Automatic annotation (TrEMBL), chain A:
Alphabetical UniProt keywords: Oxidoreductase
SUPFAM superfamilies in the record: FAD-linked reductases, C-terminal domain, FAD/NAD(P)-binding domain
Gene3D superfamilies: D-Amino Acid Oxidase, subunit A, domain 2 (3.30.9.10), FAD/NAD(P)-binding domain (3.50.50.60)
Organism superkingdom: Bacteria
Organism: Bradyrhizobium denitrificans
Domain FAD dependent oxidoreductase: residue ranges: 8-349
One Pfam family of this chain: DAO
Protein name: FAD-binding oxidoreductase
Length: 380, 464
């Protein structure tokens, strides 16, 4: 028998974006149904690297990123656990003079946003941070850090549930359409009607955008990660490298998480697995950079499915075709840190139709010029 | 045209050995990858260095089978590409990644026979991580491969035929076996009488072992529950409930295990479909009577596919190899294949009765005390798991892993996974088959990061 739910807001996708939006909306007293085709936080939100990092983001993301930055230290009050969030600082390394110059340019560009970046030279890398290798210098952002993604996303969903959100897992949204009063969603044996819909379906969000005549060039990427056995503490900061390569952090328990390279999708492209070559490359680079890793064991590899946009910026904001629909996806492998801020912004967009945080750069119209609901786009 | 890559056999126990012999007889030259230093698997494991014992002393009633397999495998010589001391750590798209002496290599294969064997299944009990506590299989290997006992006065506890076999082997080796504590109630053993016509040799031998233990002064206790191991810094005594009261017995070594569990990670990485098997209380790779998995060209044999013992492993290894030959359009012997399937079906009926005679104490999972360590690698206690299950409304194993780290450590859930599933099922009042299984990830076992340093020398040629 079909179960009928009527609510203010239906959220498609229970990742960190959808779950934090659900919690924020409950805080405003709106009724919320959060739908996930699998388990909340089991996709990119839960299997990413866990970097809580502002440094390196394009300046248009920084106001949103700063908003999220204020939320991370409050996780305990907000969701009941601290998510193993550590304000360790984020150190971005430069392997060449050109890379160092690039870090210097970035530091100057983002100075007005208050990241308090500190440029450090070669000697300090070893003395202060224990990083070896052929490096010119780095840029240190003391307020950044890292957290446990497996916990944070799941805890936002659990907190939303405790706050009264209807959280429906293993409930795939098969159809969503605009009605006179709002929206109608079909999901398994559940029929949901809602005044507003948030599309936070991650790597599956393009399907819902297309349904409202807003096709987007979303691509799937599969970051590849390895983790070592627990080791004595040697790495106090979250490490990145200018121009890419690897990124690494050591958790309180001692395990070192190292990311880099790309995994490849399985026959079912919803799932992926690190490729042996990619994993071995990460291991090689990590053991070149960190002495203690040379005698360590890798105990596990994993990957996730990320939604990536061509300009590496998310799609965030109201639909241009359909009143009441709000998009929030395509965080391009860098959504973890800003997601709690995105949740608050989404709640404001639902309640007020606007937000004080600048998000114009993320409008869906940069890919899908505004068109009418009902297929006007086809003529373009 | 490129030469077709060789078939790959993973494991050189009874199933892998029989598979290799069968493929060689048909003119193929398989690669045989095995973690052991010599063939035989766990059941017919060979000593690291020659000792004064002969096969009769080492393998008891199974000596003739052990010798025959060892000799037959050695006789294959260079007809196979045998790689001992080699860990298979990943499988993908017809290529295998293996690690030997710290160096990783990849090679292509065409046809894969997985004979990955089994390890002990345990449910955590208080004190199970104390020094002096071994799994039953571990206790047996210490004796078989190294001539070592796990203590001077030893208690064996748990469930399964191995319980009596290992206890008897220890007694024969001159160790004081204080007790055999069997979780199964005595009436369950009536199933052994039903098994008698199917396998009189096996059943009578088992009964004789139990009788010899009892006459030799070993306390044989049925219907044991509430096991607890105590001691300061190492095992001093084992405490248990039986006959309506709590008893304690002094000992300095404990062998503990609840039958065996299949090693299925390689099948998972190879893409095989799994389904829940009620007899083994585990998700196992699907296969047909010949050993074909759900993936074309991937075959499953031996305890790694489903627990059935060494004789079944031999038959299944040969049967799977015949299936590979048939699927390649090579000459094979259908009559022999039918005989083997008949043997396997008979052993399967026997296993049903043995499982009834040595049932897994499934009620135990709900009783694991909150402060008992559930996951050794990540040091997660049963209470931690229970709190997480409640807080996050968990119903599925991979979510339990994600939130608690159970199964994320060095063993990747090989040791704790079965217990965690039982605990999750008990707490959520679900059937054990409904809580899912931990998805396998490479590497199957830990590999050194330094293996990445050999990346440039790694070979990518099809054969080796």
């Amino acid at each position: 028998m079909t179960r009928r739910i009527d609510c203010d807001v239906a959220i498609i996708g229970g990742g960190l974006v959808g779950s934090s939006a659900a919690l924020a909306l409950r805080g405003m007293g709106l009724s919320v149904t959060l739908l996930d085709k699998g388990f909340c936080g089991a996709q990119a939100s839960g299997v990413n690297y866990g970097g809580v990092r502002r440094q390196g983001r394009p300046s248009e993301q920084l106001p949103l990123s700063q908003r999220a930055h204020a939320i991370w230290p409050r996780l305990q009050q907000l969701i009941g656990i601290d998510g193993e969030f550590l304000r360790s600082g984020h150190l971005k390394l430069a392997r060449s003079a050109d890379d160092m110059a690039s870090l210097e340019r970035y530091a100057a560009e983002v100075a007005p946003f208050g990241l308090d970046l500190e440029l450090v030279g070669h000697n300090q890398l070893r003395e202060r941070f224990g990083v070896m290798g052929d490096l010119v210098g780095g840029s240190f952002c003391p307020g950044d850090g890292h957290a446990n993604p497996r916990l944070v996303a799941a805890a936002f969903a659990a907190a939303a549930r405790r706050a009264g959100a209807e959280v429906l897992e293993n409930t795939e949204v098969a159809g969503v359409s605009r009605t006179f009063e709002g929206f109608a969603l079909e999901a398994g044996d559940v029929a949901v009607t809602a005044r507003s819909v948030i599309n936070s379906a991650g790597a599956w969000a393009d399907r819902f955008a297309r349904a409202f005549n807003e096709p987007v060039p979303l691509e799937r990427t599969y970051p590849s990660m390895i983790v070592t056995e627990p080791l004595d503490p040697f790495l106090s900061v979250n490490i990145g490298i200018e121009g890419g390569g690897i990124y690494a952090r050591q958790v309180a328990r001692g395990n070192v998480v190292v990311g880099g390279e790309r995994a490849t999708p399985l026959d079912n492209p919803d799932y992926s697995r690190p490729h042996s070559d990619g994993a071995l490359t990460i291991m090689q680079r990590a053991s070149e950079l960190f002495g203690p890793l040379r005698h360590a064991q890798a105990i596990r590899f994993w990957s996730g499915t990320e939604a990536t946009m061509p300009d590496r910026n998310p799609v965030l904001g109201p639909s241009a075709t359909t009143p009441g629909l709000i998009h929030a996806f395509g965080f391009s492998g860098a959504g973890f840190q800003i997601a709690p801020g995105v949740g608050e912004v989404l709640a404001e967009l639902v309640r007020d139709g606007q937000t004080a945080t600048p998000i114009d750069a993320f409008a869906i119209t940069r890919f899908s010029p505004a068109s009418q609901p009902g297929g006007a786009l086809k003529q373009q | 045209m490129r030469e077709r890559p060789p078939p790959l056999i993973v494991g050189a126990g009874p199933a892998g050995i029989r598979a290799a012999i069968t493929l060689v007889a048909a003119g193929l030259r398989p690669v045989v990858v095995d973690e052991g230093h010599a063939c035989g698997g766990q059941i017919y494991r060979q000593p690291l260095a020659a000792d004064k014992r002969d096969d009769r002393a080492r393998y008891g009633s199974e000596a003739a089978k052990a010798s025959r397999l060892h000799r037959a495998f050695a006789a294959l010589g260079s007809d196979i590409d045998y790689r001992p001391n080699t860990l298979l750590w990943n499988l993908r798209d017809g290529a295998a990644d293996v690690l030997r002496d710290g160096t990783s290599r990849r090679f292509a294969y065409d046809g894969l026979i997985l004979a990955t064997g089994a390890t002990d299944r345990v449910l955590p009990i208080p004190g199970w991580t104390l020094p002096g506590v071994f799994t039953l299989g571990g206790a047996q290997i210490a004796l078989k491969a190294q001539g070592c006992a796990i203590g001077r006065r030893v208690v064996f506890a748990g469930a399964g035929p191995l319980l009596y076999l290992v206890a008897w082997q220890y007694m024969k080796a001159g160790v004081d076996v204080a007790a055999v504590l069997d979780a199964a109630p005595l009436p369950a053993k009536l199933n052994l009488l039903r098994a008698l016509p199917l396998a009189p040799g096996i059943v009578l031998r088992g009964l004789r072992m139990a009788a010899e233990l009892a006459f030799g002064g070993t306390r044989v206790q049925f219907g044991v529950s509430g096991l607890r191991i105590e001691g300061e810094g190492r095992v001093a005594r084992i405490v248990y409930h039986a006959g309506g009261r709590e008893r304690a017995m002094a000992c300095d070594g404990v062998g503990y295990g609840l039958n065996l569990r299949s090693e299925t990670q390689a099948a998972d990485l190879a893409g095989c479909a799994f389904r829940f098997d009620p007899r083994d209380r585990a998700h196992l790779p699907e296969r047909d009577a010949a050993g074909r998995s759900s993936v074309a060209g991937v075959y499953l044999a031996g305890d790694g596919a489903r627990i059935a013992g060494a004789d079944a492993a031999e038959a299944a290894g040969e049967r799977a190899a015949l299936a590979l030959l048939e699927d390649r359009g090579l000459p094979h012997d259908p009559a022999r294949a039918a005989d083997l399937e008949h043997v396997l079906a008979r052993i399967d009926r026997l296993r049903d009765l043995l499982e009834a005679a040595f049932p897994f104490p499934s009620h135990g999972a709900g009783d694991i005390a909150d402060d008992t360590l559930l996951c050794r690698c990540e040091e997660i206690r049963a209470g931690d798991a229970r709190r997480a299950i409640a807080r996050f409304s968990l119903t599925e194993m991979n979510r339990l892993k994600a939130v608690t780290r159970i199964g994320m450590g060095r063993c990747q859930g090989r040791m704790c996974g079965a217990a965690a599933a039982e605990l999750l099922a008990a707490q959520t009042r679900r059937d054990i088959g409904a809580v899912g299984r931990l998805r396998a990830q490479a590497p199957i076992k830990p590999i050194p990061l330094a293996a990445g340093l050999s990346i440039d020398e790694r070979q990518h040629d099809p054969a080796h």
